[in-house]
Design brief:
Layout (H helix, E strand, L loop, with lengths): L14 H7 L2 H26 L1 E8 L5 H11 L17 H6 L6 E7 L2 E7 L7 H9 L3 E7 L6 H12 L3 E7 L8 H12 L7 E2 L8 H11 L12 E10 L3 E10 L2 E2 L3 E4 L5 E10 L3 E3 L2 E2 L4 E6 L12 E4 H5 L17 E7 L5 H14 L4 E7 L3 E8 L2 H15 L3 E3 L6 E5 L4 E4 L11 E16 L3 H10 L3 E7 L4 E9 H4 L3 H8 L5 E12 L1 E8 L2 E2 L5 E4 L3 H15 L7 E7 L2 E8 L15 H21 L18
Parallel strand pairs: 1-3, 1-4, 4-5, 5-6
Antiparallel strand pairs: 2-3, 7-8, 7-15, 8-14, 9-13, 10-11, 10-15, 11-12, 11-14, 16-18, 16-19, 17-18, 20-21, 20-22, 22-24, 22-25, 23-24, 26-27, 26-28, 26-29, 29-30
Length: 643
């Protein structure tokens, strides 16, 4: 790549062009055009040399967004009067929960340098957002809370950054806390990254101490973006959103070339064609500019009708470049995200079913990881089976549907997907127990397993290993980050991690343990369908797939929990757990008894017995024809079945 700034004083030979351009005047016009091209080229190269693209990565609640707030203040991007906590977190849910859910880019100026920051989520459920951010940057600021030290997601994000080839700048945050221990944590980080503890920056995102040094380190250590300004346009889509008023908006990183307003665009993967209605940068709100230069991060408002045409990871180029037959290589992009947690979403009223469909379609526009398909239940009616990247992702989508769209829903307990091979050798993927075929037609069932990592103080290793064994996990490795902090690696069935593993881990480790995982493979296990019967009727929404050895324990826990959730009726209600035709657990909800003999004031005892016999016959009739109203919280019983 040519990175040398070309001199504009050297006049090219005009003679060969004079005749074709109309004499000496043509040569002068050509020279003016030449100067304009060289000036634009030099401007693009200078822009690249003074641009730094970086993201902030950390474990959840280690202070990424707070540090970003101080950067925005210090660089003058946002005035103090307009400042608010977690400025880049635009969703109400993000502010309430104190977490980042969606990545958010912003452009800042620092000492004549342009800094493009992408603030990333810290929870394992949103690691896909982190991987997309890393692909658009050359550097990463690794933030570690010096009162907590290295956590599981810290390690996972470091591995992602190293794999992406980014320059990592370690930063110890929250040095102002009384519990801060920067020397110990600096040793942990130095051991992880192979650097010297004294070179690790120490800051306070709350007070702003040390933040100027972080900005200087970004300028000095993060390499400028590479790219060919004169080459045909190639831009990476690292995110996309749908605005109800403006349509599909692409968040892009320009790798080669320049993108301007009114350019005719083509997306290389989907072959969708569109117009750049507006281009601009984030400052931090969307601010229109004439063009986005090589190496810059910005947005493009398009006239595309559907966000499905603008897939995340696709490459944007100019329609004219493809029309000329230029051979362009698409950018690497991202792996296709695959949800592995599924739950049923059912409206409490059939009238809300169309509204639920519309709401899911709109959320899908801004969430590439969300998938859904229609589903029906004998008890709950019509709804959707929705796929997520984890339980927090599920919780966020549920709350957004309720708040933003006013929906009242019943959500079933989360499950995962299974691969079933029948006796004919055919394989199908099922996502709920109701889809499991007859056992006589099943050759094998494979369930997903995960590779997990728990970072925990050494004193709690025994309890963590015991917990891993309880969920059918297999410990694969035990290592130490330093003399006090241990890393326990293990394999485990995903279904057993989805229930209350994280809560149990926090309880066993007194809150000090942190957990990170990724999907590994599918393994053949002895799995059975566990049905839950309420008053003799199978409730398909409560059925689940469980390991044969764990099914009796799980069934007993579920019926015991349901006994506390289902209100008492005028008749006795039986709660049963069954595998096929075999009942493995039972609890009864006692009937509410009306005192029918209260009106008696004396007389023969036969009068009393007559009334009691009449009541008994009525209860038998109600038990035969009565319906049990199952509350919404009963369908999420599996998430907290040990409570």
């Amino acid at each position: 790549m040519c990175t040398e700034v070309l001199p504009v004083s050297a006049k090219p030979a005009a003679t060969p062009f004079s005749a074709t351009m109309g004499g000496s005047q043509g040569g002068s016009d050509y020279y003016d055009m030449y100067l304009a091209v060289i000036s634009s080229y030099n401007q693009a190269l200078m822009n690249q040399s003074t641009t730094r693209n970086f993201c902030i990565i950390a474990h959840i609640d280690h202070g990424k967004s707070t540090l970003a707030d101080r950067m925005l203040e210090l660089t003058g991007t946002v005035q103090k009067r307009d400042m608010q906590a977690q400025l880049l977190d635009s969703m109400d849910l993000e502010r309430e929960k104190g977490i980042t859910i969606k990545l958010q880019p912003v452009k800042m100026k620092w000492n004549d340098y342009t800094l493009n920051l992408i603030d990333t989520p810290g929870h394992v459920d949103f690691s896909y957002e982190v991987s997309r951010s890393l692909a658009a940057c050359e550097g990463a600021v690794l933030v570690v809370d010096c009162s907590q030290g290295i956590q599981a997601q810290t390690l996972a994000n470091v591995y992602l950054a190293i794999e992406a080839g980014l320059e990592i700048i370690p930063v110890l945050n929250k040095i102002d806390l009384p519990a801060a221990d920067p020397e110990r944590v600096a040793g942990e980080v130095a051991s992880l990254l192979g650097c010297k503890p004294e070179t690790i920056l120490r800051v306070s995102g709350k007070t702003g101490a040390g933040v100027p040094e972080v900005l200087d380190a970004i300028v000095e250590q993060v390499p400028p973006p590479k790219g060919e300004p004169e080459a045909p346009l190639r831009a990476l889509i690292f995110d996309s959103i749908y605005d109800i008023h403006r349509g599909v908006i692409l968040f892009i990183r320009v790798v080669d070339g320049v993108i301007k307003r009114h350019d005719e665009l083509t997306l290389m993967a989907t072959r969708a064609e569109g117009l750049a209605v507006e281009v601009g940068t984030f400052a931090p709100k969307q601010t229109a500019t004439p063009e986005i230069l090589t190496g810059q991060i910005g947005y493009v408002v398009t006239n595309l009708k559907s966000i499905s045409e603008a897939r995340v990871g696709d490459t944007v180029t100019l329609e004219s470049a493809l029309a000329k037959g230029q051979q362009l290589e698409a950018l690497a992009g991202y792996r296709q995200v695959k949800p592995f947690v599924f739950a049923g979403f059912f409206p409490t009223s059939n009238e809300q079913y169309p509204a639920l469909k519309d709401a899911l379609e709109k959320l899908k526009l801004n969430d590439a990881a969300l998938v859904y398909e229609p589903e029906s239940s004998q008890v709950l009616g019509f709804g959707y089976r929705v796929g997520f990247l984890g339980l927090l992702h599920l919780e966020i989508i549920k709350e957004r549907l309720e708040r933003e769209y006013g929906l009242d829903m019943v959500v079933t307990s989360p499950s995962t997907d299974y691969i079933v091979r029948n006796t004919a050798g055919e394989e199908t993927t099922i996502r709920s127990a109701a889809d499991l075929p007859d056992p006589s037609n099943i050759q094998e069932v494979r369930e997903p397993w995960i590779k997990g990592e728990v970072v925990v103080p050494g004193d709690y290793i025994g309890g963590v290993i015991k917990l891993i064994n309880q969920i059918r996990g297999i410990q694969t490795n035990l290592s130490y980050v330093d003399e006090k902090l241990a890393l326990v690696a293990f394999d485990a069935p995903l279904a057993n991690v989805l229930t209350d593993f994280y809560d149990s881990l926090k309880s066993i480790t007194s809150g000090y343990g942190s957990f990170n995982y990724e999907l590994s493979d599918y393994r053949t296990e002895q799995l059975v369908r566990l049905d839950i019967l309420v008053a003799g009727d199978t409730v398909d929404a409560l059925s689940l797939i469980a390991h044969k050895d764990e099914a009796p324990r799980i069934g007993k826990q579920i019926v015991e929990k349901l006994k506390t959730l289902i209100p008492r009726q005028n008749f006795e209600v039986s709660l049963q757990a069954a595998i096929g035709g075999k009942i493995i657990a039972r609890e009864d909800v006692k009937a509410v008894r009306k005192d029918v003999i209260a009106k008696l004031y004396g007389g023969d005892v036969t009068r009393k017995n007559k009334l009691l016999d009449k009541q008994k016959k009525g209860k038998k009739r109600m038990k035969r024809v009565g319906k049990v109203d199952i509350p919404a919280e009963a369908f999420m019983v599996l998430v907290s079945k040990d409570n």
